[in-house]
Automatic annotation (TrEMBL), chains A, B:
Entry superkingdom: Bacteria
Organism whose genome encodes this protein: Actinoplanes auranticolor
Domain HTH lacI-type: 10-64
Residues forming coiled coils: none
PROSITE patterns: HTH_LACI_2
Protein name: Transcriptional regulator
GO molecular function: DNA-binding transcription factor activity; transcription cis-regulatory region binding
Record PANTHER family: HTH-TYPE TRANSCRIPTIONAL REGULATOR GALS (PTHR30146:SF109), LACI-RELATED TRANSCRIPTIONAL REPRESSOR (PTHR30146)
Keywords of this entry: DNA-binding, Transcription, Transcription regulation
InterPro entries listed in its UniProt record: HTH_LacI, LacI/GalR-like_sensor, Lambda_DNA-bd_dom_sf, Peripla_BP_I
Lineage summary: Bacteria, Bacillati, Actinomycetota, Actinomycetes, Micromonosporales
Length: 337, 337
DNA sequence: TACGTGACTGGAAGCGCTTCCAGTTTCCGT
DNA sequence: ACGGAAACTGGAAGCGCTTCCAGTCACGTA
């Protein structure tokens, strides 16, 4: 190793000695605590500057019982799931919110059993001040561990069949309603939907929104096929729907990726979009601007999701009461509907 | 807060007391140190189990002067850069390598001045055991800070005009050579290139590889246009090239995104790919499989990059000597060449 | 002048763990 | 039976910081 000079960084004791005051006085200056005379403060500050002193994080953490670190945990069976740009956006949001604080972000990809036990250990050994949990299933043992470890925790999205005490989620049902209502407003009546996995909260909520909108408009849900949020899955579902409901005149796809697959299949089938069939997606990913025609879709701000999760967690760590948040969605009109 | 029972976790002292041994003995058992009798070990292990003891990370960190945390720092001016799927892949690789250890990953997006100073502080206050640096410019002050803080550091990719002591990088020049040679092997002689920003190491290296291959084959570089690694940039560059070198019969684009833009422009211009113009990209991103025609491209394993960086860093932390690594690339043939 | 008040100070006790060291025990070979 | 090495043990000194507390001091008021 090119380990730097073996001389260690100066300690608080040395600073205090140089400033000619006690260690406690020096500590007070550093922490901007009250009851410090002008003379003491000046002396300590000068010593700090001269020695290039910086307090040791670890020692401070031990004394204050605060690590200055929060974790973002992505718990899921598929290790590749993290490659979804969704998480990058969340992280950008989280980082932005953290930027204004002195906290740092620990990222935990807990897909394997080993990964999960590492995370568990991290929480139980008081390695972080709080944790944000994402992408976990309702029966994920993590929910139990987190609760038991007594670590402040906020959820990003809700697991199915489990309402966490504190969470931030996009208004999935509302967005789906928005999309469906838009299609209905266009005069379409034979609106079908391509859902995500119904065994996920997101998949279920977006399907629910579609149903609600249809029923509110006095229509009956015209046709449903379950996809898996991917482009290929969307294409397959679209083929199924065309087959079963050749008269369909609109489709609400629960993700942009699925909508892209659907568009491809519709083109192959000779249906023109939006003339014959109107299509709306969900997510407003980059892909939505590049489909042919460009995709009308429901926008959700994933960075905001990250930001709000972080703010909520900071509040909880500070001991404040908070309430869960549902983030709004909005329709972005492009060419497909 | 729903803070769990205020009763704190048991400490090592309590475990020792319960086991009827000294704290040092208990510590030895936990750390699997030698010189522990069977009886002592059993007693301590039983006490640990009964009390549900887990050592406190922070206290241990203070005593051992090891935090058990490594940082991945992405230092760049554009906060959105992190949204590039590239980083997600790196993180997946890093996580996989870390999974086998007891270390955790701290993620630092240091784009703003504030972010950079936070990172600086983290390193100087001994908040992490080592750091992996990515996407920084040659003159990034971070390189200096890292050096001065004496924190083990490995670079992912090389900044321009600066060869870090330890780094992992893809063989960009070699890959570009591979791509260009492939085009030449196809009988193309009027091969042009769309480069990335030449003011980046990657951009420069891939351009260099192209030139080398051309010259080795006795050809003169036929035309060059600088893009910015994006699809739009690639499209613009392609238009320029078509305009200046209407006779071109092949193009090597320094990224898949740019290649996708180029394909679009070529189609608009009525050039058929690969018949009239053969195209090769670089990166082998998902988009390469979806272009029309599917893109022949140079594959690099970004997860491996993350893994190797991590292994190297772990080695450095453990005090081993290491040497920098250049990861191989390979050509993936699809329809465009 | 005496006294209560509040600002300021440093000593000392932690935070929970590792590790050095000196002392004790055990177990050989002889 | 005995000397010595090797295995084991617990006391104590840290790691570097925060914070409680008892004490000092200067001040304004009665």
């Amino acid at each position: 190793m090119a380990a730097a000079a073996p001389r260690r960084q100066p300690t608080l004791d040395q600073v205090a000695e140089r400033a000619g005051v006690s260690r406690s006085a020096a500590s007070r200056v550093i922490n901007k605590a009250p009851h410090v005379s002008r003379a003491t403060r000046d002396a300590v500050e000068r010593a700090i500057k001269e020695m290039g002193y910086l307090p040791d994080r670890t020692a401070r953490a031990l004394a204050t019982r605060q690590t200055g670190i929060v974790a973002l945990a992505v718990s899921h069976d598929d290790p590749e799931l993290f490659a979804d740009p969704f998480f990058a956006q969340v992280i950008v949001g989280v980082s932005a919110a953290l930027e204004e604080t002195d906290l740092h972000l620990l990222l935990c990809l807990a897909s394997s059993g080993r990964g999960r036990s590492r995370l568990t250990n991290l929480l139980q050994t008081r390695g972080v001040d709080g944790v944000m949990l994402m992408a976990l299933r309702g029966d994920d043992p993590l929910t139990h561990i987190v609760r038991q470890a007594g670590v402040p925790a906020v959820y990003g999205g809700r697991p199915l069949h489990f309402e966490p005490q504190w969470y931030v989620d996009s208004d999935n049902a509302g967005g789906a309603r928005l999309a469906t209502e838009h299609l209905i407003g266009l005069g379409r009546t034979r609106v079908v939907t391509i859902t995500g996995q119904i065994c996920t909260e997101v998949g279920e909520a977006r399907y629910r929104g579609y149903r609600e909108a249809m029923i509110m408009a006095g229509l009956t849900p015209h046709g449903t096929a379950e996809g898996d949020f991917t482009e290929a899955g969307g294409a397959a579902a679209m083929r199924t729907l065309l087959d079963r409901h050749p008269d369909l005149d609109a489709v609400f796809a629960a993700s942009d990726n699925m909508a892209a697959g659907a568009l491809r299949v519709l083109a192959e089938a000779g249906r023109s979009v939006p003339a014959d069939v109107a299509v709306v997606g969900f997510d407003d990913l980059q892909i939505a601007e590049r489909t042919e025609p460009p995709l009308t879709t429901v926008h959700q701000s994933i960075q905001d999701l990250g930001k709000e999760m972080t703010r909520m967690l900071l509040g909880l760590i500070a001991g404040q009461e908070r309430s869960s948040i549902i983030l709004p969605t909005r329709l972005v009109q492009r060419g497909s509907a």
